[in-house]
Every structure is written in C-alpha cells, then in structure tokens.
Amino acid sequence: MKNIPVLDIEQFEQNVPLSDFYSNDLKSHLIKNESVINKPHSHNFYLCVLFTKGDGIHEIDFNSYTVTTGSVFFLKPGQTHYWQFTSEPEGYIFFHTQDFYELHFSKSKLEQFPFYYSHKNAPDIVLEPNKLNSIATIFSSINNEYYNDLPYKKQKIASLIHTAYIDLARQYGNSKISTKATSTTYIETLRALEKEIELHYKTEKSAQFYAEKLHITPKHLNRICKATLGKTTTDIITERVLLESKRLIVHSKNTLASIADILGFKDYAYFSKIFKAKTNLTPLQFKKSYQ
C-alpha cells in the first residue's frame, strides 16, 4: 500500500547540524532538493517560507495560492503541497519540529499563532514592502545562525523563530482568521475538537463520538462549531475525511476501493456517494480532472 510521500528534515540535509531544525536560502534549497520537492508531498514538521522575489503558484491541500514578492507560507505537519514558479524565486525557508520550539518556550505553544491555530485559517500572508525588509532580516539571521557553529546555537535560533512568528502574527491580521469573534472557551473547545478529529477521523465520523471525547453534549458541540466556524460538527468531520481522500486519490497509487477502506468506509459505493455530494464529482472523475 503506497501513500503520499512524507518527508523528514534529515532528508534535506544528510549531515544536518540539528536533526530537529533546518534552514536555507530558498534558491539553494530548491536547487539542492529539486528531485524531492517538485512533486506533491507532505512533511512531518512545521515549515515557514518567505519569498523576497519570485512569482508562481503554491498548492496546499488542493487550494492554490499566488506566490509573489512578500509572500509567506506556513505549513503544519501532514499538509500536502508543491510549487510551480513562473520566475526564479528568492528568499528563505526553515523547518522545525514542534518540540524544537516548545521545549525552548515551555509556556508558549505553536497553536497560539493564528497561522498554526486551525486548518481553517489561511496558510499565507503577503507582507507590505515596508515590513518585508525587517522580516527578511530575521530570516537571514536564522539562516546565518544555522550554518555557524557558535555557543547557544539552538537557543539563538529558537529565539529568532519566536520573534519572527510574533512579527508575522501581527501582520497576519483579523481578515485572515476564519474563526469568528467568540469566547475563549469556545476557541479552546474547537481546538480540542480538531485534535480529536485528527486522531480518529478514519474510524469515527459521528458528532456523538467527539462530543463524548470532549465531555459535552452533541448539541452544545454543534453550537460551538456554528458560532466559531459557521459549520456543523458533522461538516468539520466530513471536510477532514474529504481532504484525506483527495490526498490519497491524487497522490497515492492505492485503488479507489482501498482508499475507501483506509478511510473507514466498508462500502465503496457509500464513500463515492458522499464524495460526489460534497464535490459534485465521483472519486474517479476527481482523479481524472486533477490530472
């Protein structure tokens, strides 16, 4: 059974100074890893990339985003992406594990930042020209520190990443955030729901199951989902299942029947019916249209 290729940090740098962090200038990174990254793939780490020059398209989980000067993209583990450039890009890119950041900031979580908080939040921003230089300076400092063997290397890199994320979160803006203004309790419950869905969506698809996991009633959970995202609990579960089905349909060599089985559907016809109801295409039609 073949699934979407998942890349590890050490694949990008065989003699990597830090096994839980990687940095490079974008031009060198793309040239060095051309055979790996010019096709759809996912990562088991967090990725942040800044474009100081260049144009093209960045596809993330079947949504296309424009690449332009000042573009910044944020990817969480498991997201599928690839690039298509119409002009040569420049900038910086870095990867890190969750532990790399959170071990240095024990009271701070990556999920505090809006671009990592929810899959519903946009994975990109475009910096204004007057902000680009200051952010690029931080990315350059991260890259320089990575390639220098100096004392307190990890601490310095983690500190620079923390500063970069704070400045980028300030630029992210309320317009990029999908969740509606609501109570902190609702936001925390939504975050907990997304975590539970990520763990169980292949086998559990009922709102009742997730409500029990969160120790609240299905009615209240539905109220929270409607208030924060304008969707029902079932909508959110189904969207996660559909995203994974699209990833597997397009990026793996599994048969459509085996994909249905992987996602917990014993009956392919039922899987196909749900897929078509949400996308207006059968799984086979979707595969052909994407190709």
TrEMBL record:
The keyword Transcription regulation applies. Residues 191-289 form the HTH araC/xylS-type domain. Keywords: DNA-binding, Transcription, Transcription regulation. GO terms for molecular function: DNA-binding transcription factor activity; sequence-specific DNA binding. It holds the Pfam family AraC_binding. Gene3D superfamilies: Homeodomain-like, Jelly Rolls. InterPro entries: AraC-bd, Homeodomain-like_sf, HTH-like, HTH_AraC, RmlC-like_jellyroll. It comes from the Bacteria. The keyword Protein biosynthesis does not apply. This is AraC-type DNA-binding protein.
